[in-house]
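pasting for the record
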Amino acid sequence: MSATESTILWLVVWWGFLLVQLPAIRMLASKSTGSMIFDPNGNDLEGYGRRLTRSLANTQENIPLYIGVLLFAIVTNHQEITNVTACWLLYARIAQSTVHLISTSTPMIMLRFSFFLVQVGLIIYWVVQMLML
Protein backbone atom coordinates (compact mmCIF):
# COMPACT_ATOMS: atom_id res chain seq x y z
CA MET A 1 0.00 0.00 0.00
CA SER A 2 1.39 3.39 -0.94
CA ALA A 3 1.69 6.28 1.50
CA THR A 4 -1.13 8.04 -0.35
CA GLU A 5 -3.44 5.02 -0.02
CA SER A 6 -2.46 4.53 3.61
CA THR A 7 -3.17 8.18 4.38
CA ILE A 8 -6.67 7.89 2.92
CA LEU A 9 -7.34 4.85 5.07
CA TRP A 10 -5.99 6.47 8.25
CA LEU A 11 -7.92 9.70 7.62
CA VAL A 12 -11.09 7.60 7.52
CA VAL A 13 -10.02 5.73 10.68
CA TRP A 14 -9.42 9.05 12.48
CA TRP A 15 -12.79 10.37 11.32
CA GLY A 16 -14.41 7.16 12.59
CA PHE A 17 -12.57 7.40 15.91
CA LEU A 18 -14.06 10.85 16.50
CA LEU A 19 -17.46 9.78 15.21
CA VAL A 20 -17.95 6.75 17.47
CA GLN A 21 -17.37 8.84 20.59
CA LEU A 22 -20.22 11.22 19.88
CA PRO A 23 -23.20 8.89 20.55
CA ALA A 24 -21.73 7.92 23.92
CA ILE A 25 -21.16 11.55 24.88
CA ARG A 26 -24.68 12.45 23.74
CA MET A 27 -26.27 9.57 25.67
CA LEU A 28 -24.42 10.55 28.84
CA ALA A 29 -25.47 14.17 28.40
CA SER A 30 -29.12 13.23 27.81
CA LYS A 31 -29.11 11.11 30.98
CA SER A 32 -27.83 13.98 33.10
CA THR A 33 -30.03 16.67 31.53
CA GLY A 34 -33.11 14.58 30.73
CA SER A 35 -33.19 16.18 27.30
CA MET A 36 -32.66 14.70 23.84
CA ILE A 37 -31.95 18.10 22.25
CA PHE A 38 -29.25 17.84 19.61
CA ASP A 39 -27.43 20.98 18.55
CA PRO A 40 -25.07 20.14 15.65
CA ASN A 41 -22.72 22.88 16.87
CA GLY A 42 -22.38 21.19 20.25
CA ASN A 43 -23.75 24.18 22.15
CA ASP A 44 -26.02 21.84 24.12
CA LEU A 45 -22.96 20.05 25.57
CA GLU A 46 -20.28 21.03 28.04
CA GLY A 47 -16.49 20.73 27.84
CA TYR A 48 -15.18 17.70 25.99
CA GLY A 49 -18.56 16.96 24.37
CA ARG A 50 -18.74 20.42 22.85
CA ARG A 51 -15.12 20.27 21.68
CA LEU A 52 -15.65 16.76 20.25
CA THR A 53 -18.73 17.89 18.32
CA ARG A 54 -16.85 20.82 16.79
CA SER A 55 -13.72 18.77 16.11
CA LEU A 56 -15.77 16.11 14.34
CA ALA A 57 -17.62 18.75 12.29
CA ASN A 58 -14.32 20.34 11.31
CA THR A 59 -12.94 16.96 10.27
CA GLN A 60 -16.06 16.23 8.20
CA GLU A 61 -15.77 19.60 6.49
CA ASN A 62 -12.17 19.03 5.40
CA ILE A 63 -11.74 15.30 4.83
CA PRO A 64 -13.66 15.19 1.51
CA LEU A 65 -11.21 17.70 0.03
CA TYR A 66 -8.18 15.80 1.34
CA ILE A 67 -9.43 12.40 0.22
CA GLY A 68 -10.53 13.85 -3.13
CA VAL A 69 -7.07 15.23 -3.89
CA LEU A 70 -5.38 12.01 -2.75
CA LEU A 71 -7.76 9.88 -4.84
CA PHE A 72 -7.13 12.13 -7.83
CA ALA A 73 -3.40 11.54 -7.41
CA ILE A 74 -4.00 7.78 -7.39
CA VAL A 75 -6.35 7.77 -10.39
CA THR A 76 -4.07 9.97 -12.49
CA ASN A 77 -0.88 8.15 -11.48
CA HIS A 78 0.53 11.17 -9.63
CA GLN A 79 1.18 9.39 -6.35
CA GLU A 80 4.85 10.27 -6.62
CA ILE A 81 3.78 13.82 -5.73
CA THR A 82 1.69 12.90 -2.70
CA ASN A 83 3.52 9.83 -1.37
CA VAL A 84 6.44 11.84 -0.01
CA THR A 85 4.36 14.11 2.21
CA ALA A 86 0.97 12.36 2.57
CA CYS A 87 1.77 11.23 6.10
CA TRP A 88 2.28 14.89 7.11
CA LEU A 89 -1.30 15.67 6.08
CA LEU A 90 -2.48 12.87 8.36
CA TYR A 91 -0.24 13.97 11.24
CA ALA A 92 -1.42 17.58 10.92
CA ARG A 93 -5.09 16.48 10.78
CA ILE A 94 -4.74 14.34 13.90
CA ALA A 95 -2.78 17.07 15.69
CA GLN A 96 -5.40 19.70 14.82
CA SER A 97 -8.23 17.52 16.12
CA THR A 98 -6.32 16.54 19.25
CA VAL A 99 -5.52 20.14 20.13
CA HIS A 100 -9.19 20.98 19.58
CA LEU A 101 -10.21 18.18 21.95
CA ILE A 102 -7.81 19.40 24.63
CA SER A 103 -8.66 23.09 24.79
CA THR A 104 -10.18 26.08 23.06
CA SER A 105 -7.92 28.64 24.73
CA THR A 106 -6.40 31.30 22.48
CA PRO A 107 -2.90 29.74 22.38
CA MET A 108 -4.41 26.35 21.52
CA ILE A 109 -6.59 27.90 18.82
CA MET A 110 -3.46 29.42 17.28
CA LEU A 111 -1.68 26.06 17.46
CA ARG A 112 -4.69 24.36 15.90
CA PHE A 113 -4.68 26.95 13.12
CA SER A 114 -1.01 26.27 12.40
CA PHE A 115 -1.81 22.57 11.93
CA PHE A 116 -4.64 23.56 9.61
CA LEU A 117 -2.23 25.72 7.58
CA VAL A 118 0.05 22.70 7.13
CA GLN A 119 -2.88 20.76 5.67
CA VAL A 120 -3.93 23.56 3.35
CA GLY A 121 -0.33 24.14 2.29
CA LEU A 122 0.12 20.48 1.38
CA ILE A 123 -3.12 20.38 -0.62
CA ILE A 124 -2.19 23.54 -2.54
CA TYR A 125 1.32 22.22 -3.19
CA TRP A 126 0.01 18.90 -4.47
CA VAL A 127 -2.64 20.46 -6.69
CA VAL A 128 -0.17 22.90 -8.20
CA GLN A 129 2.33 20.09 -8.83
CA MET A 130 -0.32 17.93 -10.50
CA LEU A 131 -1.54 20.82 -12.65
CA MET A 132 1.99 21.50 -13.83
CA LEU A 133 2.42 17.95 -15.19
